[in-house]
Design goal:
about 150 residues, alpha+beta, six-stranded antiparallel β-sheet, 6 strands, about 30% strand, rod-shaped, Type II secretion system protein
């Protein structure tokens, strides 16, 4: 009779260990799924903000070009901690895509303007994540340069 009770307790312990193992594997899979979902959500948010930022920069360049002023005129006013060197505009942004100084930056916005053979002005707008120099978004725009008297 005791051997029968002993085998029953073994079976119970085996079932308990098996149930704990299944729950542990399930919890591990769920943690990986939630981590991946968070990463995808974070990347989508940064891409959305980068697209908005690039389009705003393109609109500011367009307004400056239409007025016949320097292409970076409005950008330099909007982002006072930015810099322009050799026809390349650079501004820095924090994790929420708000303008900031270079030491606190997570993202950078770089715009280079050049004149095409057709007489159009080309602006290459690139937004990069500084930690791993991954290009988050890139936008290329062509602008007509109005004739000035």
């Amino acid at each position: 009779m005791q051997s029968y009770t002993h085998s029953k307790s073994r079976l119970f312990l085996l079932e308990l260990v098996l149930a704990i193992f299944i729950f542990a594997v399930s919890a591990s899979i769920c943690a990986q799924v939630f981590t991946k979902a968070y990463t995808v959500s974070r990347d989508a948010k940064s891409l959305s903000q980068a697209v908005r930022l690039a389009e705003n920069a393109a609109a500011m360049i367009d307004a400056s070009v239409k007025e016949g002023s320097d292409p970076f005129f409005y950008l330099l006013r909007e982002y006072p901690e930015s810099e322009e060197t050799d026809g390349v505009f650079t501004a820095w942004f924090d994790k929420d895509m708000a303008g900031c100084g270079k030491p606190d930056a997570v993202y950078s916005l770089e715009i280079s303007c050049s004149e095409e053979e057709t007489g159009l002005q080309k602006a290459d707008i690139t937004i990069q994540r500084l930690s791993d120099t991954v290009t988050v978004h890139q936008l290329n725009k062509l602008y007509h340069i109005p004739n000035t008297p």
